[in-house]
Amino acid sequence: MDNFHFSALDAMKRSFRILTSNIGAFALLALIVFLPLGIWAATVFDGFQGFRGSNLETTQTTYLIANLLTSLLGMICIGGVIHGVRQHYQGRSASFVECCKVGLKATPMMFLLGLLTVVIFIAAMIPFYFGILVIGNSSLVILLLAILMYVVLFTIFMSLFVSGAALVVENLNPIDALKRSLQLMKGARLATFGTIFLEGIVLAVMILIFAKMMEGATSAGMIKFGSISVMVLMVLHYLLLAVFSATTYFQLRLARGETLEGMTQAKSL
Q: Is 72 part of any domain?
């Protein structure tokens, strides 16, 4: 479209409005995601006494299991949040139960989408690693190849940024979801990066706030408060990124003149 226009700032503002209006359902989804890590932290840290001193190998194993469960639950959360954003664009409120149902239904395809995305990233990185092994005799060459690799990975990430939303909303398979994301993101990668960059600024400010609050705390208290702070930040990061991604998807559709059933008043939300 010749008049295509997408604003990262508008997407961020709308994302925060959607997040605050659905904070109850979304927060419950995110808290469930990090329940395994919360249980792990409770077993590892003994209140204000700090680390329990459990067997290191056992601690690492349980931490890995907790992270795997968190990743799985994260797919349910993201699918549910995407549905919640769609409900908001259609002028309806999202219920926690309904978001869970949609998230559970979308999880198998979200899992396959995640695997496919990882394969794409690995495939994109292989040539650069071979290049470093073959011609990387100087620090300058290694630096240039590393920069080029990150540019390529950044481009891929931006191109696939709304694939999850496309999969859930349009009921696509993973391959078609990736193609749909490529179509929608054409000409909007840098603007979308602006959305993610703004999210990063918000998180950085929150980290600074937590760090300021922790000044003067005792060592044991700092460990406990620090672990809780990290959990809170992870929950917020999940929510913000999921809402930003879904909002970006809908904003791109609107910017390209597309619509969705029941979304006739989306521009005025």
A: yes
Residue 1 in any domain: the answer is: no
In a domain, 267, yes or no: no
Query: Do residues 198 and 12 make contact, with C-beta atoms less than 8 angstroms apart?
Result: yes
Rounded to the nearest 5°, which phi and psi values hold at 172? -95, 160
The Cα–Cα gap between 170 and 176 comes to: 10
Determine the pLDDT at residue 268.
38
Secondary structure (3-state) at 253: helix
pLDDT tens per residue across span 156-170: 988 999 999 999 999
- In the chain (269 residues long), the average pLDDT of successive 10-residue segments reads 70 85 88 81 62 62 85 89 91 88 93 94 88 74 84 89 93 94 88 75 73 59 62 72 89 84 47
Place of tokens 């409770």: 42
The total number of structural domains that make up the chain: 1
Residue 227 lies in a domain: yes
Q: Which domain holds residue 79?
A: 8-257
Report how far residue 118's alpha carbon sits from residue 187's, in angstroms, rounded to the nearest whole number.
Answer: 24
**Predicted TM-score of the model (pTM):** 0.80
Closest C-alpha among 84, 79, 38 to residue 228: 38
Contact 149, 125 (CB under 8 A): yes
CA–CA distance, 130 with 134 (Å, rounded to integer): 6
How far is the C-alpha of 140 from the C-alpha of 133, rounded, in Å? Answer: 14
Summarize pLDDT for 188-203 with one digit per residue, the tens: 888 778 777 777 777 7
